[in-house]
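Private note to self, pasted from the team thread so I don't lose it. Backbone tokens:
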């Protein structure tokens, strides 16, 4: 079967411009869906060929309009755990891509995964991140990190898993500022995620999984602590290679799935950097 570049490019473009009806229920995560499309176009070498300068300008403004900023009268308090980027304009805030502050709304919060994909989207579109309130983003991450080294995706969330450690690490790497993360406790937490197979689960004591293994290895690599963070690299490599059948599976005795060609393949790639 021949890979149809044009069909893939047109699919990504159509999803950027309007979500298909089957995806509209995920509107609150539109930022992340946009990242999948933009990253796909970038991997195909098509970004500058098929996206006009006007579209880039408009989409960059849309991304900045989703930025949750400090409040004007109490910059360091009301929004200190809410800043970053939301997934879409679902909350009904006015479109203000050049704002420097915003009003506090308790249920309108940034999400660490959408902050990660927003920064990625901006960089793919050629933005210089000059409108990102770096201090506010980093203050929020600092407040989302827990005493055990894990990181929550939003203020008050009970989720604590390695996906959000990866997002926080990627944000810190892109902003070139690691002051928001307690790196030592984060490394110790990732060590606790490594099972008897030496791959990585989402939370301590959980089964190793292809997606969480990539997130853990990716975070350690971004922190430049892969060597001291991985308990047994050779056995981890063996676990990854053992996931291959017709494609790659995410866990032992599961069916192969195309997404794990990325998660497992990227893990192996990062390990051998």
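Design output:
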């Amino acid at each position: 079967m021949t890979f149809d570049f044009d069909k893939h490019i047109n699919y990504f473009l159509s999803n950027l411009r309007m979500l298909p009806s089957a995806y509209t229920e995920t509107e609150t995560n539109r930022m992340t869906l946009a990242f999948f499309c933009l990253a796909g176009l970038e991997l195909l070498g098509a970004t500058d060929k098929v996206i006009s300068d006007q579209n880039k300008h408009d989409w960059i403004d849309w991304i900045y309009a989703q930025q949750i900023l400090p409040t004007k009268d109490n910059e360091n308090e009301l929004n200190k755990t809410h800043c970053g980027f939301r997934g879409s304009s679902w909350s009904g805030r006015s479109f203000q891509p050049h704002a420097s502050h915003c009003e506090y709304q308790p249920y309108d919060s940034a999400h660490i995964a959408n902050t990660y994909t927003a920064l990625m989207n901006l960089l793919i579109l050629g933005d210089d991140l000059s409108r990102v309130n770096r201090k506010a983003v980093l203050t929020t991450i600092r407040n989302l990190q827990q005493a055990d080294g894990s990181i929550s995706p939003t203020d008050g969330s009970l989720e604590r898993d390695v996906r959000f450690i990866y997002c926080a690490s990627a944000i810190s790497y892109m902003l070139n500022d690691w002051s928001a993360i307690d790196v030592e406790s984060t490394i110790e937490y990732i060590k606790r995620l490594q099972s008897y197979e030496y791959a990585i689960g989402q939370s301590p004591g959980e089964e190793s999984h292809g997606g969480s293994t990539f997130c853990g290895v990716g975070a350690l690599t971004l922190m430049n602590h892969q060597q001291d963070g991985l308990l047994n690299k050779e056995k981890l490599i063996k676990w990854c290679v053992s996931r291959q059948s017709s494609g790659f599976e995410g866990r032992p005795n599961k069916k192969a799935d195309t997404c794990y060609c990325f998660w497992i393949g990227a893990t192996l790639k990062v390990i051998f950097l």
